């Protein structure tokens, strides 16, 4: 396409590795990560107005305060819920309240005008807002005129006068304009509208059917909707004020759905927007019109969006889907929550409101997601909660709002909703008018609903967070990090960490919105009890350890209590959530099992928790697991999690541990998550970990191998973790540590000026009783790809050689970075390894946005033919010397054959339109080039900044490599313009899903989702059968390999957990899907029949699984 000044950048919120925004120092060429994402998802705070029932029936004492608790008044339950909501959300949304009966002289039924209450002092907020609303709810004197209150609220949103006393009390407000002309008194309020892209929501809560539906003051634009049912105080004359006929009234009993349609069909950009300018000398109000939004922009400029009013409902007594509710909500597609009499508690009432609030405010979905089974099964019929036999693969994903500092983990199940059967009885999916199988998706749970305060264990290194010893240890760090603080790290902080339902805290700590902090870029990983997280095939594992690890797998499958879903968040926690499959008795899916807050974060706690601090990135790096023998008789499932842009640190923990009696019977020694070690290279110097002075911001993931070392004549097992030192360091290096103790084993320097190494890819071989690393490939910030050879001699520097295999073209500082884990494919005949990767980062607001980022990036396939030279290769011992120099690369781009990616038919692309475009991949001219090939990402021009920040995957079924590319079209970035903030100018993402044939370098079109480009959205990587991130890696033993090693064990493994709970059980004759997520939380899948393994997946068999909430 034609070159434009499109500032096309990377999508941080979805990037798997490069996440934070790094400030660049020209003098030292160092990175100092900022604390926020590069990708701008600015969002105007929404208007949320509650219409609440204050009728006399609310004084009934028939609702439990909690399950098994005591009965309380409905007014008490509502008051507690409203207080919690006002405290929680006052800085997240503009809030307002209408009561259906009681009125104020100055604003009618609008008891709390829509406004920003976050800037009020605590005293004023409690006295003027909380206490006043509580007194009104406690009084609850009236009938149930729901619809008049809804209609007055609709008038308020549209800038029209509201009734001075509502409908039931209106007769007392009749005024005379002249001797014979009467009207109902109205009250003019200021417009609640602030921005031209603002969401507007109304939540209607009641405990019964409406009673008394007379509404006074009919909007002129609505009069035709009510027709002959409109009544007038005057026979010939209407009294009109700002679009409202004050002399009219209507009985709304038959017009519930009409009100719902008024809300849905309204575009508030066109509404009247009165603004109070002040008082004249006679103390009369002087009004004007708000013709610009708060950013100084026209209400209908190119970045404005339609602004309807979405209506939701909450029931406290009658069926939530009763007509009184659905009539109001259906047209705008609002939610109907709550419960019937005796089917819920006060806690459930709060949860209903909270669910609606949090769904409104969420704005972004991470594309980090995973299935809980090795194969992507999709079943026929609606899944039944609690019945795993009715569910295929469960997909776990996250939604979040970074600036509002909260996130949610969801469990979702797609299913085929309509089908027929052929003559043999086989089910055949039915398709809709668009040719897609009729389908739906069920949300099993989300953590907003399932995780409660103080649920599960809250741990840190050394014990429970609440232990006095832990508090003293963390306070020691805290006082060094915050010497000027007026307080200690004490139980106030423990309460903040463990009880998200407490809304006010000492030490000026903010209230937390949900149990999970924002999950911007953290891995989401499953630690399943029936999965062995290491490769024990004979080529990669010696017989003695292989035999022991098979026994260990069978033991943990039977004895590990639950499968853990592991996710880091920006409140500083690593969350261990009970997954749906693998539950033992007493454990419930979606509940928090353990929350690990690293002790090292005591030096960051005020930056995380203080009310006057901006949102910050914390635990948002990579997570990987390993199963290993870690002593003479000890085995463990170990996890390591890094901080990414959140800091220069990482932690290790065990999930399950056991010991053997002379290699025979196992005994469980730890069935709970246990922190093992923490490594940190920031904060107070006396608390930094020695030996890790080159550790940068820990973007790297982890590779592992399991070896044995002789100790006093006994072979002792050792799990070794290998990782890059991360970006923001001067040197590029890789660390080797004991994965159980955290002890440093070795550091190998790759480049004294490389800027830091990313995630390595490792090849291992069987050696003796266990494993040894053979070769490592890893990229760094300078754009160099390294090969590290161990030459079959172990980890000693004198035996290890480092080769600079390839260097990407220089595109300016930081623009050539290899930020992803390379994918390796090894030719078993020649022994040659092809390394697949791409260049680019989404890490620096200075470098990855604006003109500096407008560079060309490529996807590479570099063939390693074991080339070397004196200038390209050196001993590791020489690279560790202070005199070491930068190695010259063996290969550069000019040695490879070029290809390119383009839009098909020269498509004209508009980045602000949500659309999908077909792509063409022009294969490399000479794909047989012995050194490899590259594909130029130039569909959007050769200065687009489009890049690769997600790891590729190998499609074993179709012999293809899949890549996702990412970019951003900046729309002024939500930055202040003429001194005014403009939240309507968020970035527009774009990206491409590519599948490349490994033989030709051209397009592989076997999966219908591939080779497509998206605008105003971005793909999140492909999942499905036989898709591997590390086909040559050491990360897992699949069930087919286990069958070859021990067929009996493979069969017993499925029996041990039960077929329905098994990671590995699948139906080879059933349906499955390739699926791809996106930025909006949507999921699109290609459905295919496994019984036809060689069939091409055609477009008519496509299935689209949409986002649950689409606000």
Task: List the topology elements.
Elements: E1 20-25, E2 30-37, E3 47-52, E4 61-64, E5 71-73, H1 74-89, E6 94-99, E7 110-115, H2 122-139, H3 146-157, E8 162-163, E9 174-176, E10 182-184, E11 186-187, E12 200-206, E13 214-219, H4 223-226, E14 230-232, E15 240-241, E16 244-251, H5 256-265, E17 274-279, E18 285-289, E19 309-315, H6 323-329, E20 336-338, H7 346-361, E21 364-371, E22 377-378, E23 395-401, E24 406-416, E25 419-421, E26 427-429, E27 439-446, H8 447-450, E28 457-460, E29 463-464, H9 468-481, H10 491-498, E30 524-527, H11 543-559, E31 564-568, E32 574-578, E33 592-596, H12 605-609, E34 623-629, E35 634-642, E36 649-660, E37 666-670, E38 674-680, E39 703-711, E40 714-724, E41 732-738, E42 744-751, E43 761-767, E44 770-779, E45 784-789, E46 801-807, E47 823-826, E48 833-838, E49 858-864, E50 873-875, H13 876-879, E51 891-892, E52 897-903, E53 915-922, E54 932-937, E55 953-955, E56 960-969, E57 988-997, E58 1012-1015, E59 1019-1023, E60 1027-1028, H14 1039-1045, H15 1047-1057, E61 1071-1078, E62 1083-1089, E63 1102-1105
Word description of this protein:
- InterPro entries: vWFA_dom_sf.
- The protein is α+β, with helices and mostly antiparallel strands and 1111 residues long.
- 14% of the residues lie in helices and 33% in strands.
- Among the domains are: 1-43 and 821-869 and 888-1037, no CATH class; 47-361, von Willebrand factor, type A domain (Rossmann fold, 3-Layer(aba) Sandwich), CATH 3.40.50.410; 368-402 and 406-448 and 1065-1111, no CATH class.
- The longest helix has 18 residues, at 122-139.
- The relative contact order is 0.11.
- The chain is globular, with a radius of gyration of 31 Å.
- The chain contains 15 helices and 63 strands.
